[in-house]
């Protein structure tokens, strides 16, 4: 009976004895962390280029980084009301009105 041949890197890791072949196991784990393509990185740089071109030098580095992060994670739904409540609670104002 023939031995089962793994068809993917995940299958290969499951079949590899990590104690007998630690170097092979480490290479396979490293192979899993390498992205299949560089499309995500290229999209990020393209977005950064558009942001910087549009706003030019009117923004600082912190704002540029924050806008890039927002664009990168644009698929995440944000509850605007919750964010407003968080920031509104940070600056509690105790105003004493004198009449």
UniProtKB/TrEMBL annotation:
Domain HAT C-terminal dimerisation: 9-74
InterPro entries in the cross-refs: HATC_C_dom (IPR008906), IFN-induced_PKR_regulator (IPR052958), RNaseH-like_sf (IPR012337)
Cross-referenced PANTHER family: 52 KDA REPRESSOR OF THE INHIBITOR OF THE PROTEIN KINASE-LIKE PROTEIN-RELATED, DUF4371 DOMAIN-CONTAINING PROTEIN
Transmembrane parts of this sequence: 20-41
Pfam family, one: Dimer_Tnp_hAT
Name the UniProt record assigns to this protein: HAT C-terminal dimerisation domain-containing protein
Molecular function (Gene Ontology), one example: protein dimerization activity
The UniProt record lists the keyword Transmembrane helix: yes
Entry keyword Transmembrane helix: yes
Keywords for the protein's UniProt record, in alphabetical order: Membrane, Transmembrane, Transmembrane helix
């Amino acid at each position: 009976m023939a031995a089962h041949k793994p068809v993917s890197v995940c299958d290969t890791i499951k079949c590899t004895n990590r104690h007998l072949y630690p170097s092979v196991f480490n290479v396979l784990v490293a192979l899993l962390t390498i992205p299949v393509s560089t499309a995500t990185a290229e999209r990020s740089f393209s977005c950064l280029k558009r942001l910087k071109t549009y706003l030019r030098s009117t923004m600082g580095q912190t704002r540029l980084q924050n806008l890039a992060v927002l664009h990168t994670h644009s698929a995440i739904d944000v509850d605007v009301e919750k964010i407003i409540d968080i920031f509104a609670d940070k600056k509690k104002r105790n105003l004493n009105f004198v009449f």
